[in-house]
């Protein structure tokens, strides 16, 4: 199998059901999701400690789910079954709650960083937000699977919570943004 097809040499690419310019918003959206998937793989590759194995398994699942998101966005024709469901977001919520419970209470904005894993998870969070913005733009022009939008919204929260948990498990403190007022009210009393 040849890896190159030369069909995109003139700035077009294929969606399922048609061809579009390579800078089409759908391509921007699923291309950013592909970029995110690479960062998630990088984050997973940083995990060697046994106490982070649960997170590594979740990140692998997320990589598969991100492929599902891209697939759902790549359909230009109507009537195909979508892969992303609201249950995927609900599963993320359970992980978010678990990670927030094991992290120290938060009152101020924090700076991305801490351990290398936490810093990479924060990169995942910000790329997720960019992908989400592109999907919102696509949704204004095309019918999309709305569950993809919910999933991305929840996923950025997941990466925030996972980054904080990664720092907490490594006994590394998050760094608060020093000019931040107290903006979060938390039931977490840890």
Description:
The protein has helices at residues 25-45, 53-73, 86-102, 116-141, 146-169, and strands at residues 12-15, 18-21, 110-111, 175-176. It contains 5 helices and 4 strands; from the N terminus they run ββαααβααβ. It has one domain (12-77, 84-176): Hypothetical Protein Ta1238, Chain: A (Up-down Bundle). It is mainly alpha-helical and 190 residues long.
Main-sheet strand order equals: 1-2
Task: Provide mean pLDDT, rounded.
Answer: 88
Question: What's the CATH architecture?
Answer: Up-down Bundle
Note the beta-strand portion: 5-15%
Q: Keywords for this structure?
A:
single chain; about 190 residues; mainly alpha; Hypothetical Protein Ta1238, Chain: A; two-stranded antiparallel sheet; two-stranded antiparallel ribbon; 5 helices; 4 strands; globular
Summarize the structure.
The protein has five helices and four strands, in the order ββαααβααβ. By secondary structure, it is mainly α.
List the helices and strands and how they pair.
Elements: E1 12-15, E2 18-21, H1 25-45, H2 53-73, H3 86-102, E3 110-111, H4 116-141, H5 146-169, E4 175-176
Antiparallel strand pairs: 1-2, 3-4
């Amino acid at each position: 199998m040849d890896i190159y097809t030369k069909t995109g040499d003139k700035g077009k690419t294929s969606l399922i059901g048609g061809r579009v310019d390579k800078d089409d918003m759908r391509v921007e959206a699923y291309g950013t999701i592909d970029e995110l998937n690479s960062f998630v793989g990088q984050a997973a590759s940083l995990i060697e400690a046994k106490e982070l194995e649960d997170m590594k398994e979740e990140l692998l699942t997320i990589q598969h789910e991100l492929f599902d998101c891209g697939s759902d966005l790549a359909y230009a024709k109507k009537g195909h079954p979508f892969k992303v469901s609201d249950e995927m977001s609900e599963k993320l919520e359970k992980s978010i709650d678990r990670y927030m419970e094991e992290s120290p209470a938060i009152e101020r904005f924090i700076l991305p960083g801490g351990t290398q894993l936490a810093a990479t998870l924060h990169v995942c969070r910000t790329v997720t937000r960019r992908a989400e913005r592109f999907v919102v733009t696509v949704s204004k022009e095309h019918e999309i699977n709305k569950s993809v939008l919910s999933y991305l919204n929840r996923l950025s929260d997941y990466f925030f919570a996972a980054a904080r948990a990664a720092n907490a498990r490594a006994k590394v403190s998050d760094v608060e943004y020093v000019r931040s007022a107290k903006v979060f009210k938390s039931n977490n009393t840890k």
